[in-house]
Amino acid sequence: MSLYVVDTDHLSLLRRGHPAVVARVQSVPPRDLAITVITIEEQLRGWFTQVRKARDALELFGAYEGLRQVAETGAHIRVLPFSLGAVHRYLDLRRRLPRLGKLDLAISAIALESQGTLVTRNRRDYEQVPGLAFEDWSAPVG
Predict the structure, then answer these.
(1) How far apart are CA 73 and CA 69, in angstroms?
(2) Does residue 74 carry a pLDDT above 90?
(3) pLDDT-derived band of residue 142, with 50, 70 and 90 as boundaries?
């Protein structure tokens, strides 16, 4: 069994119906697919910002619809926790890779702790994380 940990960017692509991402997600058994609680945090933060910035009924509706979808995410895909083991791994990564983003390192730590393959387009940052396996599902398979 392989565990694929979908990062925030790929989850957004999935929600927007990106053809290559949708096809790849549909080809993986649901038990082999997960996101992290960090991705939930990032998505909620983005939608909260949209709620605060909404200037009319349509924008407010859209922002709250995004919040609703994030809230339902856990019903459709497994959400990996920021376990104590992952927190310790994260703190070690922060010491070793201080220039990388905190949330990217937290996602990395959870993926490593879960022995999963991170699904991301962010090769530049994630390739610096020792031992992290990753794939980009946004490119068409051909």
Answers:
(1) 6
(2) no
(3) low
